[in-house]
Amino acid sequence: MAMLHIVNKSPFEKVSFRSCLNHVSKGDSVLMIEDAAVGAIEGTSFSEKLKTAMGDVSVYVLGGDLAARGLSEDRMIDGIKAVDYAGFVDLTVENETTQSWL
Amino acid sequence: MINEGPYQHQSADSALQFCRSLLAQGHEIFRVFFYHDGVNNGSSLSVPPADDRLIQKEWSELSKEHDLDLVICIAAAQRRGLMDKDEAKRQGFESNNMIEGFRISGLGQLIEGGIESDRTVVFGD
Amino acid sequence: MATKKFMFVNRKAPYGTVYALESLEVVLISAAFEQDVSLAFIDDGVYQITKGQDTTGIGQKNFSNTYKALGDYEIKKLYVSKESLEERGLTQDDLMDLVWEDEDDDWAEKPSIIMVDRSEMAAVMAEQEVTLSF
Questions:
Q1: How far is CA B88 from CA A17, A70, B78, B85, C59, in A?
Q2: Residue C1 — pLDDT band, cuts 50, 70, 90?
């Protein structure tokens, strides 16, 4: 069963995002919302960890949370897709279950 | 499931926008369950600055508009001093502070929600 | 009522925040609904089940004994992250001895704690139908 992992804390503040990536399965999706959106940017100390995971999972970020924090989508890691709340809903429907990493 | 109170964390805002989007796309919300500090989303006594959103009222209005089942956990509410009229009377308090559109119930409602729904999403910290 | 696989994910230490206590309250309620319940203890969540908790110095109620009752409620799958213990300088010996009684085996006491590594934990998580995080 494909799982949507929702992360909401910055990878520089808490270990939640890191723990999430340590527990994803191939074919899962990861959605960054709220403060976790900062993890979508290329060139951070977290980028390599995220890029490695992207070999197995699809990664999304809530565009609104990126913009709110003054970060533009053109600075995102290649392959990450920005979605809006409608896209968030779609991801919830497309994956059989969700897990929030708080 | 919403684990955090309004304003302190973004959870309530994220959940509200997620719910609105869900409903706009034709999906059904079986229940919204408020736990931990999330019970404060049901407070009737919030007065944010005039140019800011009033989260509790947004929940209340969404509830009325779409006939939603917004459930506040009784145990968490008792701990945090959030009471509807009946609960306040039961506890011997003169005042109550729960906004319209919510109801107080037990944790079983959360489990039932998980059983009956196709999807369960948690917003927290 | 349908039976679903429920997992309760615990990643925070007890007492510093209320999550450990209030998530345990949810777990106990879930027992009444006869669902297929598992608990996961990852990151600081492992501290929730350490033995010898003494809260007299901090003025909070010690609720660690409640974990010992889980077996009586047929909640017997407590997955503990090996890596999380190692990172914290802990071993399984530092954890409470949580057991359940198997009525099909002459009420023999069996361990509820299942030590797993990350990939095993991920596999268990992938099977769950409802995952609640606190």
A1: 41, 45, 10, 5, 27
A2: confident
Distance CA B13, CA B40 (A): 13
In chain C, which residues have their Cβ closer than 8 Å to the Cβ of A52? none
Asked if the Cβ–Cβ distance from A19 to C134 is below 8 Å, we say no
Residue with tokens 């929730």: C48
Q: Are C133 and A102 an interchain contact pair (Cβ–Cβ within 8 Å)? A: yes
- Catalytic center residues of B: 73
- Whether A22 and C127 lie within 8 Å, measured CB to CB: no
Which chain B residues have a beta carbon less than 8 Å from that of A88?
18, 21
Question: Does any domain span residue B123?
Answer: no
* Average pLDDT score over chain C: 97
Query: Residue C42 is part of a domain; what is its CATH number?
Result: 3.40.1260.10
Cross-chain CB nearest to B18 (options A9, A35, A85)? A85
User: Is B6 within a domain?
Assistant: no
**B25: chain A residues, CB-CB within 8 Å:** 86, 89-90
pTM here is 0.97
Cβ contact C133–B124 (<8 Å): yes
Half-sphere exposure of A72 (CA within 13 A, CB side): 2
A24-37 pLDDT, tens per residue?
999 999 999 999 99
Give the chain C residue nearest B110 (alpha carbons): C26
Q: What is the CATH number of domain A3-101?
A: 3.40.1260.10
pLDDT tens-digit profile of A70-95?
Answer: 999 999 999 999 999 999 999 999 99
If one counts the domains in chain C, the total is 1
By the 10 Å C-beta count (0-12 exposed, 13-18 middle, 19+ buried), C88 is classed as: middle
Where along chain A do its domains lie?
3-101
DSSP-assigned letters across all residues of B17-68: HHHHHHHHTT-----EEE-GGGGGGGBS-----TTS--HHHHHHHHHHHHT-
